[in-house]
Structure formats: C-alpha cells, structure tokens
Specification:
By secondary structure, the protein is α/β, with parallel strands linked by helices. It is built from 18 helices and 13 strands. The longest helix is centred in the last third of the chain and has 37 residues. 30% of the residues are buried.
Amino acid sequence: METTALTFGEPGWLFGVAAVPALAILYWLSYRNGRKLIDRLVAPRLREQLAGTLSAARRIVRAGLVLSALAFIVIAMAQPRMGYRELEIKTQGRDVVLAIDVSRSMLATDVPPNRLERARLFSRDLLEFLRGDRIGVVAFAGSSFLQAPLTLDQSAILATLDEINPDLIPKGGTNLAAAIRTSLAAFSSAEGKSRAIVIITDGEELDADGVSAAREAVDQGVVIFTIGIGSAEGSLIPIVGDRGKQEFVRGPDGKPVTTKLDSARLEEIANITNGFYLPLSPNAAKELFFAGIESLQRVESGSGNLRQPNEQYLIPTVAAIVFLIVWLLVGERKWQRRNKVRPTLAAALFLPLFSLSSACAENAFSLYQQGDYAGAMDAFSSASKNGHEAAKNAFNAGVSAYRLGQYPKAVEAFSQALLEGDAELQEKADYNLGNTLVRMGEAASGKENKKREFQNAIEKYENVLKAKPDQKQAQENIEIVKKLIAELDKQDQQKDKQDQKDKQDQQKD
C-alpha cells in the first residue's frame, strides 16, 4: 500500500535539531555577557569610535542564518523520505547446498570449541560471499534430510544453522552417499554448471558408497567441494552422562572412542566431480569461493519487487547552502553611518575635487593614487604656489596631509583654499577644516586645548550650514562634537566633586 507520509531513514539524527535552540540560547547569553563586559571596560565615547560600525541586529541575523543552516544539515543527515517507488529486480546466481555433518563425532574438541561449531562458523563466513545465490542446507549423519530448501533469504539460512545439532538425526554414523543424494534432490531442473554441493564433515565412519553418489552428481552436472574438519591425531567424543557429568563415547570394548579426520575419501569424492578438498582454516571460505564456486555459471535465480523510498535529502541540503551563502553576504557592519569623525567616511570627502591640467598636478595625482601621500602633498603644495588653480592644489595638498596625519599642515592648506577658492570650494574647505580640527582636538593634551579645537571645529561646520543649510553631515558632526565637549565638562564636574570630597575629608582628619 503506497503512502506519501514523511519518514526518515536515520531518525536518530533528528535529536540534533533539538540542540539548535540550545545553541541559540548559549549564543545570546554569550553575546549579552560580552556587551556587559565591554560596557564596563570601555568608555561610552570610545565605544562608539571603536565599534560604531558594528550592527547588533546584523550579528544576531548572521547567527540565526548559521543555526538555520545547521538545522537543515541535521535534517538532511536524517535522510528524509516521501513515499516510495516499486522496482522489479531479477537476480542471477548459483544454487549451493551446504551439507553439514551433525553426527556425534562432530562434538569432538580437537578443533575448538568443537567441530560442529566450527562448521557453523565456516558456513556463516561462506554466506558472506554467496550474495545473490540460492542456498540450501542438508543435515546428515547415519541418514540425511533437507533442513532448508534453496532460498535467497540468508536470514532463514542463518536461523537454520543455529538449529542444527546431533539430536536432529537419531541414526549415528556419517553417510556421505545419503547427504549427496538428498542435496541432488534439492536442486531444481536448471541446466548448466551452476550447482554445487559443499560437504562439511570429518569424513569418518562411511556407512555407504559416497563415491557412487559422487558419480551421480557428475551425471547431473553438480560439482562437489569437501571441507575437512578435525585433526589427524583425533579427539575423544564428549557426551553428558546420567548424572550430568561429562563422559566420552565408548566402543564395544568399553574404551573411549577417538575420532580422527579422514581426508582421503573426501579428496576422492571431490576430485570425481571436478571439485576439490580443503582442510578447515581461517581463510577456507574465501579460498573455496574464489577458487571454486565463483567460476560456476550464473543463471537467473528469481525476480521480485524492491520498494525504494523517494529520498528528499536534496531539499534541506539546498536550504542549508542558501542560508550559508546569505550568511557570507550579510556583513556585521551597518549599511550607512554618517558619523564624520570616523576616518572611513572622511576618505570619501577628501578626494581631490578636480583633475588639474598642469604636469606638476598630474604627477601629484599619480603619486596620490599610488598611496604616496607625502610625495603628493609636496607636489600639490608646489603647484599651489604657481597661482594657476592654486586654491584647488592647496585643497588637494590638505587632503594628502590629512591622510598622513599631519593635521597642522592640513589646516594650513585648507585655510589657503578657503581664502582663495570659489564658493563651492570654500564650503568643502570649511567642512574638511572642521574634521581636521576635531582630530587635532582628540590629539591635544589638556582639556582646555581639546575644547578650544572642538569649538573651532563647530564654527567651521556652522560656516558650511550658512552657505548650505541642507548639509546634513555638517549638522550631525556638530552634534557629535557637542557631545565630546559635554563629556569633557562632565569630567571636570566629577573632578571638582572629587576635589571637594577630598578637601572635606582632610578637614575631618
């Protein structure tokens, strides 16, 4: 019955999604603690200058994008599935019957833990190589019967191997002929050399003509491989006595029976059918498959329907990639910041205003573009003394001096441009003079010197507003400089309060 419900191939991964909210909480706590720490260590004025370009909202958005990408990656790892499709498959393989000796002699311990348990282990190892082959199981001792018919279901074969034991067949002995004939009867009528019998036994106590049965297998195109389990020295056969005590199988003379591996008859049976004999070893299953069974012809062994789920992992994977791409594109800085005190916006307004025609000015432009501000300042200063476009060259010299941090020279150059330039150039010279004076005020020693430079900067910004009232940047910078002056006044007040307190303390003492 078809279904379109959403399922997951590895639902255990979904527990990872629950970790995403926990990570979000940890990030928020870390961010908040970091802000508190900065507030305690950095003064408000410096805080704006050091981190004024960073946007808290953008940081939170970037963190959300990363956490969302992580959540979708975890969902993709859980292998989401929506519905399924039916596929018809045809299998090709060989027919292999495992004939396993379950006689009492297989309880001998010369091959630890015992021969029968090692036969089971060998059979399980061989099953790993027989993928796609039909497998059957025949149990035999003094007689034999089909324990599991040919099937592609290896789980059923494994269950059968766990069930075999010496109590399955009451008749003792090792009747190889019966094992071979029961195995032949288990095969279908398929033609071609695609059928094999693997006999796993100690080869002892042959009660019938195994060689004759092997010739019957040759007539039917069946190959026999034999696996010998045991040792030439042999071992006693343990049994459980009446009182639960361990005893050993005894012969007619009353003496314990020693069972030994009989490999000669096993080699003869295998050779008749163009197979071969192998003694039990750790690599016996691998050697048997690659040297023998793999060479047999494969035939169509059956067909069936395979239900294959419709994997949907691509959707959350693409979503995670999209979130990561957006995370890369979204920076942590604000879109726009008009605080002119910051040097990043100052650079845009300090560019030379005009491309000058003289060779000296062109050389100065070239030096400026190469980052040689000292050379550009000297070249513009020399060009400003020639009289031709002197004001523009003086302005450009001020720009270069500002870039070098030589603010007194920048003030001198901007003042020259202010005196000789036209209205537009005077406006920009006043604005840049205000910026330069702010820098000088920040670098000045003593609060009075700082306040004097800040007041001069305000006058220059006000001159800009008189000529151009809609100059928003000048108005914003006036507000910023006023805040700087207010902070200096606040510091003076705090100092006066502290001095007064110290004086009162001294009087008390």
